[in-house]
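A reminder before we start the practical. When you read a complex entry, don't treat the lines as separate problems. The point of joint prediction is that each chain is placed relative to the others, so the output describes one connected object in space. Small molecules and nucleic acid strands, if listed, are placed in the same frame. In the example below there are three entries. Take a minute to note the order of the lines before looking further.
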Amino acid sequence: APATAPKACNLTEFVGTANGHTVGLVIANVDPLLHEQMKIDKKYRSIGIVGGRTGAGPQIFAADEAVKATNSEVVLIELPRDTEGGGGHGSLIVFGAEDVSDARRAVEVTLSELDRTFGDVYGTPAGHLEFQYTARASFALNKAFGAPIGQAFGITVGCPAAIGVLMADTATKAATVVPVAYATPGNGGTSYSNEAIFMFSGDSGAVRQAIRAARDVGKQVLGTLDPAPVASATKPYI
Amino acid sequence: APATAPKACNLTEFVGTANGHTVGLVIANVDPLLHEQMKIDKKYRSIGIVGGRTGAGPQIFAADEAVKATNSEVVLIELPRDTEGGGGHGSLIVFGAEDVSDARRAVEVTLSELDRTFGDVYGTPAGHLEFQYTARASFALNKAFGAPIGQAFGITVGCPAAIGVLMADTATKAATVVPVAYATPGNGGTSYSNEAIFMFSGDSGAVRQAIRAARDVGKQVLGTLDPAPVASATKPYI
Amino acid sequence: APATAPKACNLTEFVGTANGHTVGLVIANVDPLLHEQMKIDKKYRSIGIVGGRTGAGPQIFAADEAVKATNSEVVLIELPRDTEGGGGHGSLIVFGAEDVSDARRAVEVTLSELDRTFGDVYGTPAGHLEFQYTARASFALNKAFGAPIGQAFGITVGCPAAIGVLMADTATKAATVVPVAYATPGNGGTSYSNEAIFMFSGDSGAVRQAIRAARDVGKQVLGTLDPAPVASATKPYI
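Here is the predicted structure of the whole assembly.
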């Protein structure tokens, strides 16, 4: 209903919004004074900006599709401690491009992928689970997680972190995967979120099998902490 | 109604409360064992303490007025990651003074300024914006943000951080200001808050003009994420 | 009512749940690939995992009882910034054991102690207070806080942090205690929580006396910020 819908925005810089209180913006010519503060390559006059209150994995995996599809580079990925009272992260992603149309397109692709990449996010009042998968990691996933470029890559995330530790064990036992990194609240790249995150590559079938096994276990454990259903934020895709 | 009002407090150390779940306290003679743990100058026997759940900018700009008005020094400014489920900071500010009346007065001034300094804080369920301005920065703003003492100084803050990045660009383009610092969730002084913060000095008119332009843009973008009005927490002052 | 109760869990790895959205898990044989990522001593094939959304002190003091009572070691204690929108921490604790029955028992003991160790946690919408005491600190408290092993040890925690600073002063003045550490939002071991934490040892009576004096002051101050009663989460034990 128009009475309660968010306001429209006619700013040139506004691209759109998506799940997780995510907003997409573009700046055609970053002011030189700000450009210097941002410490990004001078050749990128244009930047695309994607930031959300909830979710880092969904936005980063979506941004990975954007760098594959456009002539842009991910120049910044930062993970605030957020999720609006939840135990995870928000996100700030900046794309650099020499042409504003590329920066805008990168943001558009990212926003359009978020409905899919929120598909294996499962939340209850007690915590959340997240799973992401790609058949072929590109530069955003390499920058954020050290994913080997061109390989299948997946992550399992559990909150409270204890669940994530168990899911990491389940994943490694379920299929032949190669650990890329392991993060906990005080180590490995979280911003003190209450998550344990396991990142791994391998052949495509193995990565998916590992994720599915971890997902099955994680949903059972998260379900013991709160009676709410452990339901997908959109529609599972893995 | 008395039945639901917060309790009164007869402790000598209690000074008062204010916006943002902020409390003001004073200790006439800090215990030597604690004094050593706090690592503050031994000459300050008395300390004033101001801490809030929501807001760092409002308390820091208020504290700047307090150091101008009293014989006290700001010996500690720390920014917890808080805002009670929001994407920003809380605050802990400690004033040191040789005389308890100065410490108490610094706290009183800070608390009394908070109604004003919350005036350009705008929140919705999706995020928040904050703007602060002073015609003449003093030692609290120098300590917290590196503001040049005696000069006009302002900050723009946007959450989710993407909005803050855009507002920084808007501010630099709107007037001739001198960037002092730029902070994002993982760099520059935030405590992993979901904010981008731009800090700048310049002549008084330019600083205000930059803030007003950024505020106009920020309100439009924040309004796209949630239907709630983007309203001042008290009354705009800039 | 069964319709709203959390789901049961038949996983071998599931031990139980407790206050603070805390879950306890055990892994009999950690996968070697994960074991390496976790960087824990190879002799510990089995691990116990305890993690909660709310509370670090309660889980750490409970884990201290577990290491006293079992043949296990605390190999990891990390403090996410959590409490589900509150100003404090959650927790992730990992026990290592050579035998799975020891790891499981450590988790069971920890979970069983949580009802007690949440007894001196007091929360309102404006903040929280926490107090913990043990007559004899063991290895978990030594690892987490540097508590001298075998001695009486206590902590006082206040949120917003300003209250915690005052309580630290009250505690040191109330009895002859030995400061072990002092933590604030940006220093000393918090994960940017909005807390000031004071940790101290001493003779058993002095530690309790210091805590009780701080508790009395803290409850009065926290009560000024919100009309909600400053009530124990379970039942006070100190």
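Discuss with your neighbour: Chain A has six helices and eleven strands. What might explain this?
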